[in-house]
Amino acid sequence: MNLDRFYPIFDHSDWLRRMLPLGVKLVQLRIKDQADAVVREQIAVSRDLCRAHGAVLVVNDHWQVAIDAGCDWIHLGQEDLDDADLKAIRRAGLKLGVSTHDDDELERVLAMSPDYVALGPVYPTILKKMKWKQQGLPRVTEWKARVGEVPLVGIGGMSVERAPGVLQAGADIVSVVTDITLNADPEARVRAWIEVTT
Ligand SMILES: Cc1ncc(COP(=O)(O)OP(=O)(O)O)c(N)n1
Ligand SMILES: Cc1nc(C(=O)O)sc1CCOP(=O)(O)O
Ligand SMILES: [Mg+2]
């Protein structure tokens, strides 16, 4: 697997401009509730920043814009998958990361040959309201046994302190939002994340 083990998620290219120089090598742009022109501009800027820093950019949700912008990766959740044109995504050469939260969702996505599978929320998250309780570390181990060689991303309530246990439980990658974005010193927190995942 050639994806980095540290996978932060940000909602604006300004975050990427700050964090990529610190050594972030895998990052998601997760934009919600913005006009199409803003989404297109943000994705184009993030694409160029990631290329300049040798980092992998994963675009959340906006698969058509990601195709149009010549991006390499898209992340889709279960509801996104209902609407997405997977053939067009594959034809354009994009790699596909998917969210899962239960058995049925995992069965569904494994049939799509995803390039990574995310399991969440491993711990409670404050970022968004979710109908799933925390999955816990034994579930991470179970998921890794079921996905086999496909990289497994753990997400939800992640912190620098929790990351080693999640990796030890079987996750290949740990994804995080508020432990960084709400930290008083996001740059220092990213450095700590890089240290604990390298
Ligand atoms: C790495 C990673 N895992 C899960 C998600 C959640 O995707 P989704 O269920 O589509 O929800 P939104 O993020 O779109 O609100 C993710 N974005 N990234
Ligand atoms: C965007 C997202 N997806 C999740 C899932 O379980 O699919 S949990 C989550 C939020 C992650 O944010 P934080 O690191 O602040 O908890
Ligand atoms: Mg989504």
TrEMBL record:
Pfam families registered for this protein in UniProt: TMP-TENI
Necessary cofactors: Mg(2+)
Gene Ontology cellular component terms for the protein in this record: cytoplasm
Keyword Magnesium: yes
Pathway: Cofactor biosynthesis; thiamine diphosphate biosynthesis; thiamine phosphate from 4-amino-2-methyl-5-diphosphomethylpyrimidine and 4-methyl-5-(2-phosphoethyl)-thiazole: step 1/1
The keyword Magnesium is assigned to this record: yes
Domain Thiamine phosphate synthase/TenI: 13-180
Alphabetical keyword list: Magnesium, Metal-binding, Thiamine biosynthesis, Transferase
One example of a Gene Ontology biological process annotation: thiamine biosynthetic process
CDD domains: TMP_TenI (cd00564)
Enzyme class, broadest EC rank: transferase
The organism's place on the tree of life at top rank: Bacteria
EC number: 2.5.1.3
Catalytic activity: 2-(2-carboxy-4-methylthiazol-5-yl)ethyl phosphate + 4-amino-2-methyl-5-(diphosphooxymethyl)pyrimidine + 2 H(+) = thiamine phosphate + CO2 + diphosphate; 2-[(2R,5Z)-2-carboxy-4-methylthiazol-5(2H)-ylidene]ethyl phosphate + 4-amino-2-methyl-5-(diphosphooxymethyl)pyrimidine + 2 H(+) = thiamine phosphate + CO2 + diphosphate; 4-methyl-5-(2-phosphooxyethyl)-thiazole + 4-amino-2-methyl-5-(diphosphooxymethyl)pyrimidine + H(+) = thiamine phosphate + diphosphate
A molecular function GO annotation: metal ion binding
Family per record: Belongs to the thiamine-phosphate synthase family.
Protein name as catalogued: Thiamine-phosphate synthase
Organism: Ruegeria atlantica
